[in-house]
Structures are given as C-alpha cells and as structure tokens.
Design brief:
Chain lengths: ~375, ~375, ~375, ~375
C-alpha cells in the first residue's frame, strides 16, 4: 500500500494548463497520488478525462458536494487528504471553505477568493480547522526566489531601502482594442472576474513576491490604473506607488498592454549594502549587485545557496529547471506540512498571503477610484 | 483499470539524479505508470526505495533476471511494457539486449553500450525484436532544439555550410589535478568507464545533436584529445575536426577542464541563407541570424513554431520549462510509438543515434592515438 | 586655413569627465577645432590645462566676460562660433544668456539652468538671437535611440499606449547614509544644486527621452519622492506617474539608492502593434517586440535602420560604439545646423527640451510637496 | 606652440572606415595633432579630403616618397614624428620599412606585411632604428581585454590549461556563392591579398589575442581550412588546433561563412583555478568563472580593475565605451612610448606580435596543404 499523500483535484480537466501544471507538480517528488476528484461539471467529460490521464474512475464524483459526502464515508486512511482547487475563481471560496470545515487540507489556485471579505472568512475557517492551506503563488517556488528571500532575511543587503516589481504582459491587446470582444470576454466582466483584471491577475503576484522576498510589509498604496476605453470596465494596466514598513518606498508596475511582453515579471530589492534582481523569464539567475564590486550571478544547485533554495533544485548546476519545478517545490513543502515534517516558512504561500493579496487588489482599485490617493492595506493574522 | 503504459525501472534508486529525472519525465503527460523494477542490488535499499517513492512492493524484484522471469509469467495486459535502464554503463548492453530478446520496449540511458561492437549487436537484436527502443540524449527533447531541427530540415537556412558545437564543463578539476584522485576515480578508469571520458560523456552529445538538428552526417573525424597528466588514462578535453556529408565541415569542442563552466552546450549551424544558435543553459531561446536582418529570438509556445516543437511545450510563452520537460518530451514520443500512434521521427533518439555515438567515441580516440589523423565514421542502418 | 567650426570651451579643465567627453565628441567627425576658452577660474590651472591638451594659449582667457569681449574684437571669420558650457550648473544660465545675446551658438550641458524661470528667459533670448542652441541630453545621440524614435514616428508601433522609463543608480549610498556627508556635499545642498537631486539629475533624462522617442507630450505628473532621512533636503529617489497627450499613461522610476546599479537607464514604449525597449548600458541593441512573432534585436549600422540612425554610426555592424560616439553625433548635428546644412530634428536636443526638463523638475517636486497630487507641465514653444 | 605629437597619415581618405577610426583614436587623449600625410594617390582627392577634415594643405604630399623627402628637410621640432599606415596591405611593408629607416615612429594597420619574410626584415630594420612601432590589433586596447591579461599574468586563473578563441563573421556569403564575384574580388585574389583570407584577416586576431591575454606561446598548429568551391583560391573558414607552451592545448575557430554573425570574436582562457571569457560585441563585460562560486561580471572603470585596464577607461562605470575608445587606448600607449614616458608592455601590440601573426598565417596554410598536420610556429625576438 502506497504511503503517498492522497490528492483530490477539483477542475483542471481537458486541456487546462493549470491542470497539467498541478498534476506534474504533485508527482515531482513522489509524494502525492491523485486518487479522485471532479475534473468537469459535465459527467462524460469528467469521466473521460479521468480515463485519459489513467485514473481509476471509482472516485471520480459528479460534483463537489458528492465528493465531500462520499469521501467522508471512507476510513480516514483511505480518504482524500488534500484537495487542489483549480476551478473558476468564483468557486474557490465556497469550495475551500467547505473543504476546511470538513477537515481537508487545501491547495488553492490564486486569486484565493473573489473578495477580501471572503478571504477573511476563509482565514477564520482555517483557524478553526487547523489543517494545511496553501495558495499557489507559483513563482515563489523558484530556487533563486527562495535564495533571494533567504539572503535578504539574513541581512546580506543590509537595511532595505527600495523595492520594485514590474509585471508586464501584452496578451490583452487583441481583446481590448476590439469593442465587441472587450465587452463580451469574461476576463473584463466584473461580475465574472472580480473588480480588477490587471492588478487582480498579475499585480497581486508582484505584491506577494515583494513581501515574500523582502520581508517588508506594504502598508499603503497609491494606484493609477488604466482602462484605455471608457466603455471598458476593468483595469488592464496600472502603476502602484508603495509605502512599506521600515520606512521603505517602492513601486509596482503592471500591464497587460505592454505589447510583445510575454510574462516579464522582474523583482528588485535594494538595501544599503547591496541589491538583488530576479527575472521570471530567466528564473535560474539571481543578480547580486554591490557598489564597487563585480556583479555576481548566482545559479541554482550550488553549495553557496541556502538550504531553502537547494531543497528546490533536483539536478546539478547547468541543468535548467523551470516553472513546473517551481510549482513542484510548493507541493513538496505542502507535503512536509501535511506529513508534519519540519519545513521552512518560505516553502509555500499561506492563507495570509492570500488574504493580503485580496486586500491589495481592493485597495489599489479604491485608490484609483478616489483620485489616486493613498489607501492603507489592513493588517491580518 | 488504468490505460497508462506499464513502466519498469532498472537502477535509479536512492538519491540518483537520473532516477528522479526519469520518474518525473515519465509522469509529465499522464502516459506512464511505474509498476515495478529493480532500484538497487541491495534488497533492503531496493524495497526501501520503492516504499519511499510510494510504490507497491509486489513487483519489486531482487534482480534483473528475476524481473524478466516473473514479468513473463504475467498476462500481457498486466506485464511491464517498457523498461528504463538507468544502471551503471557496463550493464546497459546486457540488460537492453535481453529485454529486447524478450519483447520489451526499452528506454536506455546514454552511453547506450560500452563499445561500438556491443552497439551493433544491440541493433541486430532490435531488428529482430521490432519493439521500441530509445536512447536518452536528453537535450534533443527541448522545444527549441526540435524547432532548430525542423527549420533546418525545411530549408530555412538554405544549404548547410558549417556546423559547430561546444560542450564545456569544469567539474573534473578537483579530480584531475589530484594524483591520488585521478588514479582512483571510476570515471578515469577505462575498465569501468570505457575508452573515453570527455568525448564519451559529452562529446557524444555534441555529435548526436549536430546530426539531429542539421540533417548532415558526420563522415570523418580528426581529434586532438587532452589527458593533461601522463599517468592519466582518459581524455578530459578534446577538439574534433569534422568532415560531413554534403561537403560540410565543422568542429566539436568539448572539455571537462573548462574551469567554472557548468554545462555549456552550444550548437550552431550555418547555411548559406541564415544561421541558428542554441544554448543548453538558456534552452528557451533560439537565435536566428540572417545577413542584414535583425537578429530574431524564437521562444517556445508560439504559433510560429513547428508542430514538433509545440508538441513539447505545455504552457504559454513566458513560462520557462527546463530539462525535466525536455526528458518528458522524449517519454511522450516513446509513448506514442508504444501505443502505435503517429509520431515524428525527431521525438526521440533511436538506436541508430546510439550506435553512431559509440562509433564516434571509438573513432575520435583512434584518430588521436594515430597522431591526429582523419578516421571515418562507419555507416549503420 | 581650416574650414572647421571654431569652438570655445567654458569649464571642463583638469580631470573633468565632461571635459574629455566634449573634446572627443567635437573631434569625431572632423567638424570642430577648439580655438580657445576658459577651462578654469584659476589662471595657472587654466593655462596649464590648455597646454596639456596641446592648445595654443593666445585665446585662453582669464574669465568668461573677457572671452566675450576679446572674441568680439576679432573678425567674424576668426571668432569663436560656438561655445560649449561645461561649468557648474548655476553658471549655465548667465553664460548661455550672454553668449546668445552676443550672437554665439551654444552647446549647453544639462541641467540647462537652475530654475524653470531662467529656462524661459533663455528661450526668449534665443528667439531674438536666432543662433543654434543645443542642450546635451547625451543619450539621445545613440544610433539605436534615434532608430527607436524614427520607428515610432513612422508608426511602426501603431498607437502608443504606454511609456515607461527606469533610471537607476546606486552611487549616493556612501553619502546619504553618512550624516556628516549628506549635510555637507554640494549635491544635496539646494542652494548649490537646485531643488532636486535625483529627479533633477537623472529623472529629467528619462522625461526628455520618453518625449524624444515616443512623440507624446507628458502633460501631468504625480510624484512620490524619497529623501530617506529627515535632515536630508533633496530627493535621492522618486517615482513619477505620467499622463501624456493622446491618452497615454506612463511612469518614470528613478533612483540613486538602487544599490549596485551603475547607470541603468531603460526606456520602453508600447503601441497597439508592437513595443520597443532600449537599455543605455547595452546601447547597441534595440528590442522590437510584437505579439506572436519572434523578438527582433536591431543593431547599428545595418541598412534596415533609418537615415537618422545610420548617420550616427561610423563602423559596420559588430564594432560597438559607445557614449563618446553618442555625444559625437550630437556635435555632428549641431555642426550641420551651424553650417546651415539640412538636418533632422532628432539630431540634437533643443532649448525646448531644456525648458520642458526644468519644468518637469519643478512640477515633480511640487507634486510631492503637495502630497502626491497631479500637477500639469506647462506648454512652451 | 602645441606640444602634441605630430602625426602623419598614409591612406585612410574618403569614406575609409579605418581612416576615421585612426583619426578619432588619435584625438582621444589630446596627445596627437595630424599635421600632414598622403590620403589618396589621386591629387585632387588627396587635397580635397585634407580640406574636408579641416587640415591645412601645406603638408599634404603627392606621394609617400615626397612625404619622406620633404619632412626630412624640416627641423626635427616640426617634423612628423609618427606615421600611421592605413594603405592597402601590400604597401604596409615598403612604407613601414622606409619610415623606420628614416627615423620615424610607425603605427601600422594589420596585416603588418603580406609575407612572413617581409615581417622578419621589418623586425631587423626596427632593431636598427630603435623607434616606436605598433601594429594595430585594435581589440587589445579594450579595458576588459587588458584586465583579462593582467588577471592572468597575476596568476588569478592559476596554471593555464586551455585556450579557446572563436572569430565568426558571415559577410562573405554574397561573394563566395557567386562564381563571378568570388573570382573577381580582390579579397579572394592571392596576388592582392596574400595567401589567406579568413585566417589572414581574422584568425590572426584570434592568434594574437590568445597570446596577448594568456601569456602562453602558441608553438604548433594543425589547421583544416575551408574553401567551399574548388575554383576558390582562398580559405573563408578554418579551424586550427593549437599546442602551446606550458603544455597547454587550445583551438581557434574562425569563419567568414558563419551566416548572420557580425563580428563575433570570443576569447576564453581556463586555468586550474578559474576561467575568463570576453566577447568583442559586448566588450565591457569580463566573465570570471570559478568552480562553485557565483559567476562574476567585471566591468570597466571600477577600482577592482588593474591600472592597465583603468588607464583605458575615460568615464565612470555604466557609460559604455567602444571600439574607437579601444583604438584610442593603443594610440595613448604609443604616445607614452614616443614621449619616453613609462608604459605597460600591454598598452600596444609590438612588431613581435606582427611577425608572429604573419608566421601563424603561413603555418596554418602550410598545415592545411600538407593534409592537416602539425606545423611549428617559429620563435622570433
């Protein structure tokens, strides 16, 4: 009998990209076995997909509520232990909340919820449940992001004095410039996608990453968002000025109209001793800049890296790993938590990251709507 | 009942890097299920490792011969279909040969055998067996390597006029410069490692890659190898001049004493219309150079790429995939062949690649020993 | 008798970096001959320096007023035609103003003046003088910056929708964190350096460059500046939100506390068809990004470049030129204007660039001081 | 009266690229004044060009012999001190030889002569003349090449164990593939261009550079050249295996059919402690690779650089200088030698570099013609 963690999956069927990402990630360290789930609301697609990925179909359920009901009937030693939620955004909250209430561990795609209010409720539920909860800000799993965090926490940059993140994409052009498309796509429909497109989808990655690597807390934001067309209801570009703990200032530049950019997420943190830069599209390089010294380029797998970083590298230097490996590292960390093994706080993003991210989205939009004024991020614990 | 391909593994237990590479690769497209194998000659380690990676232990065998014997007793619908050979090099040939003789498909790590003679025998065995055989020149699975191949085969470079590969590493320094270590390590012991270290381990990758992407055949070689110390028995650096089909000349530069280099494998092919360059350490960039035109940088996942390339990319542009994904693509191709689905000849390296690679190693050493003279590569089919 | 333009120099003696930059730049296209000037207020240093750089000393003057007085006595065919002002900032305005009033052409280092008020007066003086005036925003002379401008003006990006400039340096760290130094350096003394350090020195380059390459006008700014210490009187970091003509939004990120950054000036402009990126530290690459197409990297000297770009490249592709060559191109453009030859408006920055730059500095500081509110840039012509 | 060195120029008139390169280089440090020369064999073009570059015409001579004759009549304090030879290759030797015989210093473009025999004669003439002689292997003047040399000479790489240079261009394609053009261009005519095209033009740069930076002497070569067409008389591509002093092996890869390459000259030297890499197209980066340490990127102008390197940088870090600046540094070194000031041996390439370079060309061709055999480079002093 396998001692792997029994994993259930909600959503992610068919050609879903997020589906294959989570399946591969879960398999990378031989820690999980997918035992069941609901891949699709359509029963034939659901069962068909389960067969396609080689799963036995006895624990493929017709819907989420049935999954909970049936799994609870199983002895604990057979029951799904953790559920990955890969469904449309508006389902994240009700599913996660019910799973936690019934004692399951949860791995939840971002955005964790559709409102800050929901996020706070989920946080309360988790406090009662005392299970493991992770929100998949995938990029925090890269070895060199982890290394960046550890170096900063260890004081290698000195006192932090500036944080800066850019997240530029260009994919929305064909939609935003077409009157018909921009009014019909679900991505630009607030009822389906929440109150923000650009900040909600990628700005929130930048927000989480800056806090993750720098250890400073973003306390206030002043945002100028861009909608481009007066009939467009959601931001597709935005710059956010930041005021942080420890007297640090910073900026987040995000855009979905940065034409030709693919997924250009760049993070820079400067202390009074040195600076660090990381770029998602070349994730295996971490640039250490010190005044008057040669630029140093750190790479994964070297013994000069921290334990947290090395724990996320499978092969020796020179063998590039990528985003699947990054997500795999998050799954690995969650596995440790579920198995009650010791783990580093940086191994996976927690519900607090999710709650703060939701608050950031709402506050950025509020700042913009009030005429680009400073608005505070709330504290949660 | 799962419709996944039943995979057996030989070797790759414990902390084996090649072990995790193959396990992850096999899982990437939901095509394989590991059902058994022999991970370690020590029974306790063998069983212990199986448990550690969450495998049922009923088909973990005490040794290779037992695996064959027991699996053949199972009905074909339950029997292991394909075996991945990850054992020490000298075991590749006898294992592969027996597996083929008994009707199994085989995925074999490189070097395929320890001598060219063995390689030719294996080729004959395969001709009788008519099963699927792949040798894992891992780098050929990268999407941009596949794209390079397709563009060249489609004539986008015009007539090929120059091929060039560099494969530089620096890891052997601490061994080679230590008299004690260089005489005791198995890597520099011809009885354990075959007749060549540098050419055998990495030069052969360069040889296979040049033929894979360019479509030209390397016909003669003139090699100057370097042993650095007179008491060292194996080359740790070597440059090989090439004469190829279609009147093409070229060069392979390989080294394990290129201090500080990690895994710098660079491939360049020039035609009379354009040139292409690819670098393993940044595998998601393919550089297209045309006289008088802007340099173009092709990246994975774009619709401008060939089918063969796109088939090896799971996520959209800007989401870097790496070497696990590259190996995953080779497994995907093998799965198609096993399942008798249509596939492109470039999806996995065949026994011919393995046979030619073994011949290259022997001929390069022969050229050097005869005083740097031209020696012909033999034709096989 | 030489037909070179007779050039006078004010300042730039001794080890002055700006001095050697202008001297070399003036010589690059065989268009100028330095005939006199005032290199230093100290007479011995002044004469000594003239000898050191191989100049006859008969037209080295004891001070600026004497230069004007004596040169005006010479026949026009011998008189200095154009004067380069390389003195401390507060002298730029009085010198430039008097030179223009006396019919000289002027090449003025930036910042053109110390206040916007002075800049407007200078503009009026120039209108009467009708001579040639250039302000040396050096970076606009790079061939690939010129190419960027031409491509955008030709519509190759489509409708501009986003502008973004980053100018990060880290040199001020050793000063700003030392209480004694930050109170005593002239750079952080408003009486000696004007009202802004970071915005005034480098933010203004970003402002000018964005307008230069994109053709849009920046109309309003909202700035958040950073002084780091309460006893520090001048900004050493600042982010400025931009609202521009044609409904374009943008951002300027500038810093002198971006530790380890040298002179990282990066300019990005995105249109609805494509985007362009240029980086000062690698000035010979221009990145053209189009959705769904390979990234293209344009380089100097190729026939695909515009006339304006090619006019600024002396050698064939692959022979890197640098910042001296960039400044040389500005001098070349000024020479054309002085010689009344046809020239492209992009060949050198004009007084309007200088005036707008001064206004930007004052408005950015005003925005910050008023609590990060929108402030309009004035129109000048 | 100017104390600049009086420089004469032979050739380089009209649109000559080498002409502008030398003129600008000579002006960069205020050390030279061009006083006369012969720019063109056609008198009107000669005088016209002198006027165009603003020179007085009284010392523009109708031919080389007249220049010598007339200049010798002038008092030594007015006479041309040093002559730059920028004429077609076959004139280098007779001009340089006569100039040396008459006591002039000489700056000679490469190839220094057309045969090794001439080179040796010139060396003898110089020994008698005892004047200053420099051959302009331009690339050795780059600050980071100088830094590479100094670091290696200082032992920072440990014992050298491998040298490698690549010099790839693609410009000859339109000529070589056109039967008419390849038979008519002077570049592929041995009577006009000497015995080698690719090795003679660029391979020789690689040869000189490897010796310049590494301090090892190349002792034997084995070359495989490529002519592509049987009716083509000169190599347009060639790989040269190297055996060097101190038991070092290496390789030079050179090509003019590397389609799309511009001027890709890359130099790598590996010692047992570390490796260094430099690329001409990005000349301001020097990569220091050490096993198990972060890659370090050294850049010009930092105090961590050697005196020799810093002497060749005019502006602070982050202000890129280029090939004009590199040549300017060679002129600066020659000025020191002429002025009998102390200078570093690395400041300019000497006649020994020129002699060895000529020998390399002849030996590479000899090796190829004899069937790719080892041929020794001769020793000269």
């Amino acid at each position: 009998m396998s001692n792997k963690i029994r994993l259930g999956i909600l959503g992610g069927g068919g050609d879903s990209l997020i589906g294959i990402l989570h399946r591969v990630a879960s398999s990378m360290y031989d820690k999980y076995q997918i035992v069941g789930g609901v891949f699709n609301p359509n029963w034939e697609d659901n069962i068909g997909f389960a067969k396609q990925i080689g799963l036995p179909t006895n624990r493929i359920y017709k819907d989420f509520d049935t999954l909970i009901e049936e799994e609870l009937k199983l002895p604990e030693s057979e029951r799904i232990q953790v559920v990955s939620i890969l469904t449309p955004n508006f389902l994240h909250f009700p599913m996660a909340n019910k799973l936690l209430e019934n004692g399951f561990h949860v791995i939840c795609e971002k955005p964790m919820t559709t409102t800050y209010e929901e996020a706070k409720i989920l946080n309360q539920t988790l406090k009662k449940a005392q299970t493991v909860f992770a929100v998949t800000y995938t990029y925090t799993g890269y070895p060199m992001v982890r290394q960046m965090r550890e170096m900063i926490l260890n004081g290698e940059l000195g006192t932090i004095q500036k944080v800066d993140a850019q997240y530029y994409q260009g994919w929305i052009n064909p939609i935003i410039h077409d009157k018909e498309k921009r009014s019909s796509t679900w991505r630009l429909n607030p009822e389906k996608s929440g109150i923000s497109c650009c900040i909600g989808d990628i700005g929130t990655h930048a927000f989480d990453m800056l806090e993750f690597v720098s250890g400073v807390k973003i306390e206030s934001v002043l945002a100028d968002l861009n909608y481009l067309y007066s009939d467009n209801k959601m931001d597709i570009d935005g710059t956010v000025l930041l005021r942080c703990s420890k007297n640090v200032k910073g900026v987040i530049c995000s855009s979905q109209i940065a034409t030709g950019e693919e997924n250009s997420f760049i993070v820079k943190v400067y202390g009074d001793k040195a600076g660090l830069k990381w770029e998602q599209e070349n994730p295996n390089y971490l640039y250490l800049m010190e005044d008057g010294k040669p630029l140093r380029v750190l790479k994964p797998g070297h013994s000069y890296n921290s334990e947290l970083s090395l724990d996320g590298t499978k092969l020796p230097p020179g063998h590039p790993e990528g985003i699947f490996d990054s997500m795999g590292n998050i799954y690995k960390g969650v596995a440790k938590a579920i198995n009650k093994e010791p783990y580093n706080h940086g191994e996976f993003p927690t519900i607090i990251d999710g709650v703060r991210g939701m608050n950031f989205i709402e506050k950025a939009v509020e700042s913009h709507q009030k005429g680009n004024v400073w608005v505070d991020i709330e504290n949660v614990d």
